[in-house]
Design brief:
Number of strands of chain A: 2
CATH superfamily of the largest domain in chain B: Response regulator
Order of helices and strands of chain B: HEHEHEHEEHEHEHEHEHEHHHEEEE
Number of domains of chain B: 2
Strand order of the largest sheet of chain A: 1-2
Oligomer: heterotrimer
Radius of gyration of chain B: 22 Å
Largest interface: A-C, 64 and 76 residues
Structural class of chain A: mainly alpha
Distance between the termini of chain B: 83 Å
Shape of chain A: globular
Largest sheet of chain A: 2 strands, antiparallel
CATH topology of the largest domain in chain B: Rossmann fold
Strand content of chain B: 15-25%
Strand order of the largest sheet of chain B: 7-6-8-9-10-13-14
Shape of chain B: globular
CATH class of the largest domain in chain B: Alpha Beta
Helix content of chain A: over 70%
Chains: A mainly alpha, B alpha/beta, C alpha/beta
Strand content of chain A: under 5%
Number of helices of chain B: 12
């Protein structure tokens, strides 16, 4: 019973981590950069959706869609102002710049959205249902499905569609991609937009189970980064799998050893895992070219 | 390289000048109150509540002509980001640069504890408005410049244990505590209170402030046979605990510290919010004293986002801050000076003050620097959006 | 940093100390905080600035230092001054331990390990309550005494200023020591530093250890400053601030961390009055500072002040004797060496012997396994079977730095110099032969006139380098990079010198010089092992030639023996080249499709293209010829938009495209098939072909795919395999097919024959001839001038970035001066 509960909880949590981590994967594989404030992007999705749907009473699908579009725009802005200026000058200060953007966004939201946590109502998170004696909100079952579906969609779109293949081409050889007529800086910007939209989706999905406030993404962002790394940041399936594994292990550690040591154990496991598998679970090591 | 050298020297000189130029900019005769609290991040709401309580009190005093014969009070605020190092540097700035007459503390016990030795060595009264850690006021210093108008964890924890035994016949309580200094302080307090009552406990579980799901922790407590839960956490985390209990369909009585009062608990936790019984020092609901009506009125006038008592969250923050500012002003008035030592003596001279929380009578003595005592705690629960005292 | 600048730093610290005497308590606290942040920053600078490793968990080491002092002082009553070294040592030990997992990972993986470390320390401090006091921490820690003086505000701030000054000085000493240089080398070119005998494990571990110790010391001093420790004083965000101090100040500079600490500590203090809005403004100002000076404040200032030192190397030491004295080793013997990657036999049962004083060449068509053998020899790959012996030492399976120390030096196909270090330092670090010692004596011991400096400069002179010794190696022209790399390999005093395609990218004249140099090196008694494509060079200087094909040795002997070996001729030299297509008769003037006017491109004072004027008419096939380095590939990049900005005009069908980016030019119908194929390795052949039509949206794409497959039937056989698995020739066909999918108005072909076996080249040029005959407009650049001229209608010759000749193939062929410049040894 304890173990079942842990696994159900872990699956829901893990797919959230995975979803957020996919955002890291997308930008890293296209541009070798990441938005270090991915947690803030997630929070932004939830806060915007809350503003549209709850505060202003928009038709929910419209509000959620608008929120995601704005998340995408935000991603474009992050790339344009906090990543591109540094990558162009061959500086790795984008790491700091994206952190700074995160500070900015968190605080702007703090002063506009408010300092009080709010609940995002959802019919899927009202009444728990019982599965194998474990109570879950229906939304908790929806989240892994959406997470896996998005990972699968990402996989299929990138391999089956023209623009998906173009993105893969940019990953493999940006200069040659330019020679195909592919707008590489556009593709990189697009990858940031997709990344923040994924984060936004994660935020909106999680909001009804959680509370909406300006720092809801902080811990998630760090854990998602850990998941992206563990998954081997260059493999979409690896990242999603790592998310699920991380979520389940985290819940199991809590159940078996007590919550006091959960954080320490999880972070120690990350170090051990990376020491044993320097390229993550499914990341591929390139043969060293000399 | 000479050019480079001079440029560097210039840079250094610039920094030095800049350092010296950080000069205060308020009128000489104003009396300064300083606040060091978490104003951004997770605890921003609490910091804002304290700010508002202090502001309303200060404005009320100034409108009545100030203190010490017409001197106005100015409030200076600094953000400590819940980091004691930042709190300490901010306290130093307020004390040593701005020469504040009194310092007010915020939510975080570690920050207050870091400031206590400075306040005592600099002889500046330090008034706690929220942080409930026992050693803040009982810090062993003599003379002791630290006072408080807030709950004390140790005493709250005794009340929690007593309440759970009296009303739920608790024999094997489980603790579910937020994983921060506040949670830890109550872990010690609750353990001590249980030992004093010759009781054992089912288990102690911690959870992170922004954890999605507390089911694994609660499952452990349930498995070890907990018959009552002691809850310590801010409003958001407390709501997560209630929702997780719902998911497990575990109907267990929950006795809580004052965390749920910090926001819209019913909205966050759903209908089961009413199952949580929690301790309060003040609430703007129900029949208010004339003082209560007056302050509520001032707050709603000053802050348009306060549309009713339900919006004033956390009410304890506002109320504690309001009363502490009034008490500090009274102490300064009694001292007839802003000299730290005299103000400290001034606190003991306060005979009575008709405050928000209660009618304070001789609130401070050299032995007792805590104005709120065990008798001031009220047990309450959320019914819909209102905090209602529990009648037994 | 020169001594004068050191004096400047000293002035700075003196000013800070003087400030301590007039400052109030708050200012003293701020000064001390700046100092401690700077000390952490200096340590972090060893990691980031020298070793190129990032850490987002340094607050963990800071916390370890603080807790050690706090616990020892309060629980055991140990004096602060005894606890301080314990704190430093403990932090250093933890740093060493953390280095172990960190050595195997890089980039974001390393960032994650350090983040996790920081969190473990923070949470550990909360949970290990008996020792750490839990979340409340340890309070009321007494001020230490010093010579009977209580170390409170003012004396403490003075001590911390002193500690910061010492730390700055130590960083300065360390950064210019051999260890510091070794860290830089490992950062700039990992593999090259290993093959100079540098032990990367030791170097990176040292960086972590030192960096951790500095943070630990700073943390220890934070205890008397604040008189408490608590976990919430060491949040993750603080690690970011530490890193920020280094980046904002300027990573790798001496004063950077100091300036950065001033910014990171003072800025929030200035903004303190903003109360809850402080973080908001801090975040915004950070962005602004980063925008203005992404390489850091000190870095930006230094860039403006850097003076060019153009001094060339001064000879003086007899290098031949230097080499001879060391090259007393026996034979290098490789027996039965085999390795497989994922089932593919990259090298199988390779046996060869390299003797001192001889040039032993390894040749073979592309993909024969030549570089694989070198990598096995140098320890970058582990052999599955076989042995490597140098004289009587068994080197099989040894790590690369040990092999290097045994006397095997190496150069690379693409040069691997330490780009951010001066040329001279590249050699000086190599002269250490991996022996860094325990002392931190400066790399340039004895100054510019020291013995080692003279030796290094003489080595540079010996290989024929005439450039400035103080220039950053990364900014050298290609030829000089090759020479410096050879000089660096020689600096290790090798018994065996291994060169991987040293002539690649060199002009005819440079190749001749190189051949003479290699011979001269061999004559000193060094065993030279050469992998090279240029057969003229190989045949001219080799004493012994080993021929590989498909990972196996197929022949060995003298150059003359190998040349007549039928197996070699079949596998490597192929048939005599006979083009399937004949040149066509010249036709009248045609409407120009592509024209350039005085095209200039390239960065800095020395552009690569200095005025190119070419024109290609509709249906014409034009060849651009020139020696390597003449600017042919740059021209192709400029035309296709990969190289921007350019000056002058590029007109495509009357429209100026000189300012358009590459992806827009494709839409206008100019398609480049780039040098080196550049297929998308992970995509299927079919997807590669389809991507060629990315800019099209008509319905005929599938029809064109079919046409491409008919043109190159071998691609149809491989249609669904990953492009990366194709052979070089197949990849070239794929690249052409992909280019044709855009229905080009003009097709640019850049070095299509590069690295292909003659038979394949023949097939390929046959395909070009068919394209030409179908009326495709083509601009062709190829090293094989004979082939190119056989097909082209017209040709241009460019030299040093200028068009110097234009004419029919006949005219160009008959011009002796051009033959001298270009066809000299390539024909």
């Amino acid at each position: 019973m304890l173990i079942t509960a842990a696994i159900v909880t872990g699956l829901g949590l893990g797919s959230m981590y995975g979803l957020l981590a996919l955002g890291f994967y997308i930008t890293y594989s296209v541009s070798s950069t990441v938005n270090f404030s991915q947690g803030s992007s997630m929070m932004l999705g939830a806060v915007l959706a809350y503003a549209f749907v709850v505060t202003w009473g928009w038709y929910p699908p419209l509000g959620i869609l608008t929120a995601l579009v704005l998340c995408g725009v935000y991603g474009l802005a992050v790339e344009r102002f906090a990543v591109r200026p540094f990558v162009r000058r061959d500086s790795n200060a984008w790491l700091m710049a994206t952190v700074a953007v995160g500070i900015l966004v968190d605080n702007i939201v703090l002063f506009t959205f408010g300092k009080e946590p709010r609940r995002f109502p959802s019919p899927l998170a009202d009444m728990p249902v019982s599965i194998a004696d474990v109570g879950v909100y229906p939304l908790q079952l929806v989240i892994p499905v959406v997470g896996l579906a998005l990972a699968a969609a990402l996989h299929v779109l990138s391999r089956r569609t023209k623009y998906g293949k173009a993105l893969l081409a940019v990953v493999q050889n940006p200069d040659a991609a330019r020679l195909m007529g592919i707008n590489v800086s556009g593709a990189i910007a697009a990858s940031f937009a997709i990344s923040t939209i994924f984060a936004g989706i994660a935020g909106i999905l999680i909001a009804p189970l959680f509370n909406v406030n300006s720092d809801m993404g902080t811990l998630f962002g760090i854990k998602a980064f850990a998941v992206a790394i563990l998954g081997g940041i260059t493999s979409a399936w690896g990242v999603m799998l790592a998310g699920l594994v991380f979520g389940i292990v985290e819940a199991l550690v809590t159940v078996l050893f007590g919550s006091v040591y959960t954080q320490i154990v999880m972070f120690a496991l990350i170090i051990v895992a990376l020491a044993l598998m320097p390229n993550g679970l499914l990341g591929r090591a390139g043969v060293k070219k000399v | 390289m000479t050019l480079q050298t001079s440029r560097r020297a210039l840079l250094g000189a610039g920094a030095a000048v800049a350092l010296l130029a950080m000069a205060p900019a308020a009128q000489a005769q104003d009396i300064k109150f300083g606040l060091v609290a978490a104003l951004s991040g997770q605890s921003a709401r609490a910091g804002e509540a304290i700010t508002r309580g202090l502001t309303v009190a200060v404005e009320e005093i100034n409108a009545k002509g100030g203190i010490l014969g017409g001197r106005k009070i100015v409030l200076l605020r600094r953000d400590d980001e819940s980091n004691p190092s930042k709190g300490l540097i901010a306290a130093r700035e307020l004390i040593q640069r701005e020469k504040v007459a009194a310092l007010f503390g915020g939510l975080d016990t570690p920050v207050s504890l870091a400031i206590v030795p400075l306040a005592n060595s600099e002889k500046v009264p330090f008034m706690g408005t929220w942080a409930a850690g026992t050693p803040i006021t009982k810090n062993g210093a003599n003379p002791n410049f630290v006072f408080r108008v807030s709950a004390v964890d140790e005493i709250v924890d005794q009340a929690i244990v007593k309440y759970s035994v009296r009303h739920y016949s608790a024999k094997n309580p489980g603790m579910i505590l937020v994983n921060n200094p506040w949670g830890e302080s109550n872990e010690q307090g609750l353990k001590a209170a249980l030992t004093a009552s010759n009781m054992k406990y089912a288990g102690i579980e911690k959870f992170e402030g922004n954890e999605l799901d507390v089911v694994p922790q609660l499952s452990r407590l349930k498995a070890s046979g907990a018959d009552v839960l002691y809850l310590v956490g801010n409003v958001g985390p407390s709501a997560q605990v209630v929702k997780s209990l719902d998911k497990m369909a575990w109907k267990v009585p929950v006795v809580s510290h004052w965390g749920p009062a910090g926001g819209r608990f019913t909205e966050l936790a759903g209908p089961s919010a009413a199952n949580v019984h929690f301790v309060q020092t003040y609430s703007f609901f129900g029949d208010l004293s004339p003082k209560g009506k007056q302050v509520l009125d001032m707050l709603m006038k000053k802050y348009p986002d306060y549309k009713g008592p339900g919006d004033i969250t956390p009410a304890v923050g506002v109320a504690n801050a309001y009363d502490s500012a009034q008490l500090v002003a009274l102490a300064i008035q009694a001292a007839g000076s802003t000299d730290g030592d005299k103000v400290r003596e001034g606190f003991y001279k306060i005979e009575s003050y008709d405050g928000l929380i209660k009618k304070f009578a001789k609130p401070f003595t050299p032995q007792n620097h805590d104005a709120v005592t065990a008798d001031d705690y009220v047990w309450t629960q959320f019914i819909n959006d209102q905090i209602i005292p529990i009648k037994h | 940093m020169k001594p004068l600048a050191l004096l400047g730093a000293a002035t700075l610290f003196a000013a800070a100390a003087a400030l301590c005497f007039v400052a109030d308590g708050y200012q003293l606290f701020v000064i001390a905080t700046v100092g401690l942040t700077a000390v952490v920053g200096l340590g972090l600078n060893v990691l980031l600035g020298l070793a190129g490793q990032v850490s987002l968990g340094h607050v963990g080491f800071y916390a370890i230092g603080a807790y050690t002092v706090a616990i020892l002082q309060t629980k055991l009553g140990v004096s602060f001054w005894l606890a301080l070294p314990v704190a430093a040592i403990l932090s250093a030990i933890v740093g060493t331990i953390l280095a172990i997992p960190s050595l195997r990972v890089r980039g974001p993986y390393l960032a994650m390990i350090t983040i996790a470390f920081g969190f473990i320390i923070e949470h550990g401090a909360v949970e290990w309550r008996a020792l750490t006091g839990g979340a409340t921490g340890i309070l009321n820690i007494p001020d230490p005494g010093l010579f009977g003086l209580k170390l409170d505000d003012k004396p403490l701030a003075l001590v911390i200023v002193g500690v910061t000054a010492i730390a700055t000085f130590l960083y300065w000493v360390f950064a210019r020591s051999a260890w510091g240089a070794a860290m830089r080398a490992a950062r700039d070119a990992e593999t090259a530093s290993e093959s100079l005998g540098l032990n990367l494990v030791a170097i990176r571990t040292a960086a972590f250890t030192l960096s951790a110790a500095a943070a630990g010391i700073a943390g220890a001093f934070s205890v008397p400053l604040t008189n408490f420790v608590a976990p919430s004083a060491f949040p993750f965000f603080q690690s970011i601030l530490f890193l920020l101090a280094v980046i904002i100040g300027g990573a790798g500079t001496v004063l950077g961390p100091l300036i950065g600490a001033v910014v990171v500590v003072l800025l929030p203090e200035y903004l303190a009055f903003l109360a809850e809005y402080r973080l908001l403004f801090f975040g915004g100002l950070l962005l602004v500072v980063l925008w203005v000076a992404p390489e850091g404040i000190v870095g930006a200032v230094a860039r403006h002040l850097r003076r060019a030192d153009e001094r060339p190397p001064r000879p003086g030491v007899d290098i031949e004797r230097f080499l001879h004295e060391r090259a007393d080793g026996g034979n290098l013997e490789i027996r039965g060496l085999s390795v497989a990657f994922g089932g593919v036999r990259a090298a199988h049962d390779i046996t060869l012997m390299a003797r001192p004083g001889q040039v032993t060449s390894i040749i073979g068509p592309n993909g024969a396994g030549k570089t694989t053998v070198l990598n096995l020899l140098c320890g970058f790959y582990r052999p599955d079977a076989g042995s490597i012996r140098l004289a009587d030492i068994d080197l099989t399976g040894k790590p690369s730095y040990e092999i290097a120390r045994a006397g095997i030096a190496r150069t690379y196909q693409t040069t691997q110099l330490f780009g951010q270090m001066p040329v001279l330092d590249n050699l000086l670090i190599a002269l250490r032969r991996g022996n860094l010692g325990l002392s931190i004596s400066p790399l340039r011991a004895g100054g510019d006139d020291g013995e080692t400096a003279r030796l290094a400069e003489s080595l540079l002179g010996f290989v024929g380098y005439r450039g400035a010794v103080e220039r950053l190696a990364g900014s050298l022209p290609h030829v000089d990079k090759r020479l410096v790399e050879i000089a660096r390999a020689l600096a290790t005093g090798p018994r065996v010198l291994v060169l991987d395609e040293p002539a690649a990218g060199l002009g005819a004249g440079d190749k001749t010089t190189l051949a003479a140099l290699l011979r001269k090196i061999a004559d000193t008694g060094v065993a030279v092992v050469l992998v090279e494509h240029d057969m003229g060079l190989v045949m001219g200087i080799s004493d012994h030639v080993v021929v590989l094909d498909a990972g196996a040795r197929i022949a060995a002997g003298t150059a003359a023996e190998v040349r007549v070996n039928p197996a070699v001729r079949k596998a490597y030299l192929g048939e005599d080249m006979k083009l399937a297509a004949a040149p066509r008769a010249p036709s009248g003037p045609r409407a120009p499709v592509l024209q350039t006017g005085d095209l200039v491109a390239g960065y800095g004072a020395e552009p690569v293209l200095k005025g190119i004027t070419v024109s290609v008419g509709a249906g014409e096939m034009v060849a651009v010829l020139g020696a390597n380095g003449a600017g042919k590939s740059t021209l192709m990049k400029a035309l296709s938009g990969l190289r921007r900005p350019v000056q002058g005009t590029i007109t495509l069908e009357g429209q100026d495209i000189a300012t358009l980016p590459a992806h827009r030019i494709v839409g206008h119908g100019l398609i480049l098939v780039p040098e080196g194929r550049q297929v998308f390795p992970e995509l299927s052949v079919l997807d590669n072909i389809r991507l060629g039509a990315f800019s099209r949206s008509d319905g005929d794409i599938e029809q064109d795919v079919e046409a491409a497959l008919q043109r190159f039937p071998r691609l149809r056989e491989r249609i669904s395999s990953r492009a990366g698995l194709l052979s070089g020739g197949e990849q070239q066909m794929l690249a052409v097919a992909r280019g044709l999918m855009a229905r080009p108005k003009i097709l640019l072909l850049d070095e299509p024959s590069l690295g292909l076996a003659p038979q394949l080249v023949n097939d390929l040029f046959g395909a070009f001839a068919r394209l030409r005959d179908e009326g495709t407009t083509i601009l062709l650049v190829d090293q094989m001038a004979g082939l190119a001229l056989a097909l082209a209608d017209r040709g241009y010759v460019i030299e040093s970035g200028r068009t110097v000749h234009e004419g029919t193939p006949e005219e160009i062929r008959n011009n002796p001066a051009l033959e001298q410049a270009y066809l000299g040894s390539a024909a």
